Amino acid sequence: MLNEVQLLGRVGQAPELKKLDGGSTVATFSIATTEKWKDEKGELKEATEWHNAEAWNGIADTVSKYVEKGDMILIKGKLKTEKWEKDGQKHSSTKVRVTNLHLLPKGKGGMSDQDKQDVQQSKELLEYLGSLPEAEKTAFKEKFINFKKFISEENLNKDTAGFLGF
Questions:
Q1: DSSP state, 136?
Q2: Cα–Cα distance between 127 and 41 in angstroms, integer?
Q3: 22 Cβ partners below 8 Å, 6+ apart?
């Protein structure tokens, strides 16, 4: 089973950082994603979804230092649903627990063409990997981990690693 989400959007509120008693830190923020399409009359339509997100420890610190309201970011993580009861009413809230954060270039234009292409390729790769049978996913993960170890052992120079996208 797979619980993985990837969102590309704009931060809706300034992230809030909390330091917990045990020494952990958590940053909470919202991110807006917008879908655009043409209806049957050919008119452009748009719908925006708001997503709550939380990042922990090192990622939380990065979020609090570098992420501001309106910034375009790419987050990867997993969905986490909390349930509680108050005054006899059952409530629930779903958020993205961020495991990976990509800060995108700031500015009026948002992402460069290369950034857009990289994001699209990442989406396509994740979609492809998600469609693989479990045994093939496991084999891919093992090969990828071994490849990263190979690179981290400095078997490749920085130019070669950069060419490969690492």
A1: H
A2: 31
A3: none
